[in-house]
Amino acid sequence: MPVESTRQSSDIGPNSLPSGRGQVTVTRTYLAMTRPDQLRCGDPPALPTQLIALDPCTIDAWRMLYTHIGSQWHWHDRDAWSDADLQARLDTGRVSVFRVRAELPHGVIDDAGFLELEHHPDGSIELAYVGLDSRVFGHGIGRWLVAEATALAWSRGATHVWLHTCTLDSESALPNYLARGFQPTRQEQYVTEIANR
Asked: Cβ(185)–Cβ(192) under 8 Å?
């Protein structure tokens, strides 16, 4: 789950396959924050930016944001979900979905980012998806989005806040989470198949 930018070529190296896809070994890192006072917000973004709740969030809006923001980072785990399965998840009352609106010098981008928070039975809140449109990279919006998401989770009574990122995500994702005050809790590796670039 990720504030995504460019992936590190040193971390993945697809093998050429006839299908145009490649096997990669991915390292996934889990991180957590156990107290609200651990959050370090950092500087505000350089552009006017707003986090907008989608309440209710429609299936079409969710799929548009998930695909638009996540496709460059190989977010495909929910591609096969049926509309009924996705609607059931959105209807649980445990999932909150947001979009990012950013004002760039050349115009407003209403789909500049995507955030999904998930409340878990143990009282924790997961930053399940965090991502930005490449058009807003370099303005400090990733730093702002992670801080806003984390503060929002704490304001909703989280016992702890957690997330995971991986080496398919932006090279700035993990440093951003660490700078905001998250601490690694464990790592794992897995092999997956992705489209060659």
From this structure: no
